[in-house]
Amino acid sequence: MTPVLTNVEKLRRLHWNTTLNATNSVFAQLTYFGPAFVLFLNELNLSNTQIGFILSLLPFTAIVAPLIAPSVARFGYKRTFVTFFGIRKIATAGLLLVPWVLARYGHETMVIYVTFVVGGFALCRAISETGMYPWAQEYIPNTIRGRYAAISDIAVRLTAILSIGVASYILGLSAGLDRFMLLFAIALVFGAAAVWAATHIPGGAPQRKNDSEKVSYREMLHVLRDRNFLLYMAGLGALTIGTVPMGSFLPLFMEQQVGLSESRVVLLQIGTLVGGLSSTYLVGWAADRYGSKPVMMSGIIVKILLPVAWVLMPRFSELSLPAALLIALVLGAADIAWAIGSARLLYVKVVPPARSAQYMAVYYALIGVIGGLSQVVGGRVLDYTQDLSGQFLIFTVDPFFPLFVFGFVLTIVSVLLFRRVHADSPVGLGEFVGLFIHGNPVLALESLFRYYRARDERSTVAMTERMGKTKSPLTVEEMLEALKDPRFNVRFEAIISISRMESDPRLVEALCNIVDGTEISLSVIAAWALGRIGDERAIVTLKAGLDSDYRSIRAHCARALGTLGDTSVAPLLLARLQSEADKGLRMAYASALGNLRYFEAADTILGVLEETENEGARLELALALARIVGHEHHFIRLLRSFRQDKGTAASQAITAAQRRLAPLTDGFSHLMSESADAFARDDFDRGTLLLIQLIGILPPDAHTPHGRAILEACARQLEIIKAEPADVLLLALHTLDVAVA
Q1: Residue 137 to residue 322: CA distance in whole angstroms
Q2: Which residue positions in the chain have pLDDT lower than 50?
Q3: Contact by Cβ (8 Å): 594, 627
């Protein structure tokens, strides 16, 4: 068996892979994979078809991957990569001789020479990357694959930005081929450093005989029977054919159709890199947390709009460069979402780790063929459409217009195909996008960062509170983690913070577990939080909590059920209210029944109100009855007015009721007027007496049945206590006004 790397070994030496990627990024941007190389080929007076053919060699040679995969496995993935990774740098050195070949042997020989140099590099690249793909699946842990890809990409983009800045400066200094030779020489220095870094990456050992026999041609044919793999490749093929030609010939479009200079065209690549850099870590973090597919799909959907943006951008204008840079920034962000999401999905879900070599060989060959065809077709199309011009609706028609149309259509096709590929998480695209439009995502991400940097309990509690205030689903994982924190205050604050957030099934389940748990102080607050969140999935747990051994839990479960509006529990709560001796529980049951607007409980709550002396408790009981009547907000407004000016508030309430009851009170409207006038003069004894008389003579059909019953009960209590305390008077005035039949 091939020795298995531990995660410790992988993590300890993973920085060498970052170094490899960063240094090779400089090499790539200054040679075959940067805009300067297309400009170099154009400087050599190659036709678009010739440029497309030469560029197609880079992916086309990948077709050798299935043929050499068994040999690569036996020779060793690392040994194969390092060997041919180095040889391809030597092949690239041949570009330095292009001016000499052109001067000595002429243009045709130079074209053949450049083709052989690029072909030699491409073949070595294909062989080395046949070893790299299964090797990369080995030495990068899946648990951090997304985040590591982001960190590595940041390093790559920073070095790429610097190298492109240098390229733009050098290309702007002069004309001719010498400036390109200088770029290639700089690239070779960094290419050598990349080879050195590759030698320090662990793993990639030669496969033993039994293991290498598994990497057979027959096994690779079995890969083509994997429907999920084929769907992935079909989507990738549509996207590649649609977008690669656009990207390859975009420098020529910007120079010929938009009017940007060569140095400015090269600068656009910096815009793309900066756009990706701005979202790289967020994308990697999101891919690890929420899955690869929604991240990938969000990137592709943005890419659909890019061809439209390029066609509509201003041309030969002062706004051309700013518009091009803005589009490049968006392209960079979309590219990184696509790149990290698709690569992670490939490694984690599409390719089985046990059959990595077979799948990766077929994958690399297929993308090579697809990529090569796209370059050849793109170059040929441009030559066929070189005289195309005109206007179609709002679109300027030029030789590049067909490429943009094909890119737009095929990107949509790729979306439809990728939708059918198996996901590596249950999070869908809609749910993923929703994470960033609910609550305050910017503040949430900032809070997450500070949460993990918190050094003590106080700061952790503060950040937990802050996360709750964002109301963002992005913080759900951290909230769940905070609920398991060994520090009590952090757990307590987590429950309170969760109560501020939108309902989430995992958070509700976690709070239900706390209610069922043994930490009583947290169970109580968790029951309250479930009521505040308002998720009906908590009802079963809260009902069970009514039978808890602890009165505090029973009380808060009852209140929460009332808040949730679970009317099925109302008869049980009423029965307990009628038999319960504990004052706290009686208050909880009464409050819950008020929230449920359970009219059958009105008489019992009125009885509890008669027996209660505490002012705050009496107001809560009056509120419970007011809720049964309806229009809770009216009762609260009336209470606030009472606290400011009791007499005026009572007078205005009776006047308002008089207007509502006008058709039914012609015979005794004077009684209402006198009562209102008495209250206005702060004569509460007379005002209350007149109100009692009024209630006694109101027509039976003036109010709803439960409103009538509550008014009569209020009148009985007012005869005993007059207008003090104010709760019964408040309830009477509220019911008189809003419980009209």
Answers
A1: 40
A2: 1, 212-213
A3: yes
Distance CA 232, CA 421 (A): 6
Would you list the DSSP string of 502-567? Answer: PP-HHHHHHHHHHHTSS-HHHHHHHHHHHHHHT-GGGHHHHHHHTT-S-HHHHHHHHHHHHHHT-G
CA torsion, ordered 315, 384, 391, 375, to nearest 10 deg: -50
| Structure token pair of residue 48 | 């678009």
Q: Hey, what domains does the chain have and what are their CATH numbers?
A: 7-432 (1.20.1250.20), 440-501 (1.25.10), 632-738 (no CATH)
Question: 740: helix, coil or strand?
Answer: strand
Task: For 79-99, write each residue's pLDDT tens digit.
Answer: 898 999 999 999 999 999 988
> Which residues fall within 8 angstroms of residue 433, CB to CB, at 6 or more apart?
294, 298
Would you say how long the chain is, in residues? Answer: 741
Alpha-carbon span 645 to 135, nearest angstrom? 80
pLDDT tens string 120-145: 998 998 888 888 877 777 777 766 77
Q: At 391, is the secondary structure helix, strand, or coil?
A: strand
Separation of alpha carbons 95 and 69, rounded Å: 29
What is the Cα 605 distance to its own chain's centre? 48
- pLDDT tens string 717-738: 888 765 566 788 888 888 888 7
pLDDT number for residue 212: 45
The H or E element spanning position 689 is helix 684-697
H or E segment to which residue 158 belongs? helix 145-171
Give the CA count within 13 Å in the CB-facing half-sphere of 126.
31
Q: Residue 385 phi/psi, 5° resolution?
A: -105, 20
Helix axes 320-345, 262-290, angle to 10 degrees: 30
- Per-residue tokens: 623: 């509120």
For the record, the structure tokens of 227 come out as 């429907």
Pairwise CA distance, residues 164 & 143, whole Å: 33
Q: Which residues have CB under 8 Å from 362's CB, separation 6+?
A: 65, 66, 220, 223, 224
Q: Which residue's structure tokens are 């491409």? A: 122
Q: Which residues have CB under 8 Å from 421's CB, separation 6+?
A: 228, 231, 232, 235, 293, 345, 350
Q: State the Cα–Cα distance between residues 336 and 340, nearest whole angstrom.
A: 6
Q: Is 306 helix (H, G, I), strand (E, B) or coil?
A: helix
- Kindly report the backbone phi and psi dihedral angles of residue 537, in degrees, each rounded to the nearest multiple of 5, phi listed first: -65, -15
Contact 356, 133 (CB under 8 A): yes
Secondary structure percentages of the chain, helix, strand, coil, to 5:
80, 0, 20
**Rounded Cα gap, residues 147 and 430, in angstroms:** 22
Nearest 5°: the CA angle 127, 43, 104 is: 85
Burial grade of 458 (CB within 10 A; 0-12, 13-18, 19 or more) = exposed
| Beta carbons within 8 Å of 710's beta carbon, 6+ residues apart | 602, 606, 625, 628, 629, 731, 735, 739
